[in-house]
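As practice, study what follows.
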Amino acid sequence: MTKPPRQPSQPLLRKTEAPVRSRPRRPRDPAQPQLPFDPMPDRIEPCLALLKAKPPRGPDWLFEVKWDGYRVAVHIRPNDVRIITRGGHDWTDRFPAIADAARTISIGTAILDGEAVVLDAQGRSDFGALQRSLGGRGGKQASGEAILYAFDLLYFDGHDLTRMELSGRRHLLEDLIKEGDGPIRLSQEVEADGDALLAAACAHGLEGIIAKHRDSTYRSGRLGDWLKVKCIQSESFVIIGYEPSALARGGIGSLLLAAYQGDTFVYVGSVGTGFKERDALELRRMLDTLKTKHAPVAVDKKGVVFVQPTLIAEIEYRAWTDDGKLRNASYKGLRELQDNAAIYKLGK
């Protein structure tokens, strides 16, 4: 490949808490019309997976395990590594092991697309464990346990790969990320029957699978080039209150949840399971700072402590009841509003 490009005059990230925004591509230098390098972008809006009930069929689709963590892009330049969240925030310091591993990759410039996760004893991604390792929602501590599962390569050795088909990007990524159990690992692709793979993933307690069209270019947004199929439904809902309990962990009997319907919130039920003691105590502390006398939405319950609709909870559930409530719901953890939380929207 060609030599890596010169360092751009502007730093990758501004020294500020504000997220990085995508910018239009800079034109080539007219004085050097044959310059082979593409400028390295500050940020690329991620390609997102569209939720489907069943896996697609046919030879045009490749499959991966669905990881449950934080979507990040790892930007590698000579003597410089940045880890940028889905929302454009610099979390390099919060994932030190991933950053250190990225510095050892034998490449001048690259952008890796992947998921930062913490694994449980069975090798499954555990979102709650990841949150705890980062100090909880809004916490600022570094996670020494987090690893990166890389599944795409968007920029390589001075070249923009977003216009290349997925199969070509994966070929380069597989050469770049060697197999092993280090802080940066390759998210393995599987050429298999989607239904059989989904059944196997669910049997092993995984969240689900991702299907990707092998000939697709990298297009930002949720356009259907990538699909996700879950074993158990999992979505983000806003917490609007809780039912106190003297017996439950953290004193929380259940959380009251709401989703968007149009521009307003509507009550979609409660969740009373899935709380770990440490999480429940911290959650109760946060909820008590948000108490309000005014119910954010209409709820036909007594003894409820209402809170401002600020905290976003990730909830697993089996189905919806006929009256629009969550069935068999279980609490997974809190989401970072600016990065991963997309509050569930009900159909009209």
In short: The CA atoms of residues 244 and 309 lie 17 Å apart. Confidence is low (pLDDT under 50) at residues 1-17, 21-33. Residues 233-334 form a domain with the OB fold (Dihydrolipoamide Acetyltransferase, E2P) fold (CATH 2.40.50.140). The helical segments are 96-103, 127-133, 166-176, 194-203, 277-288.
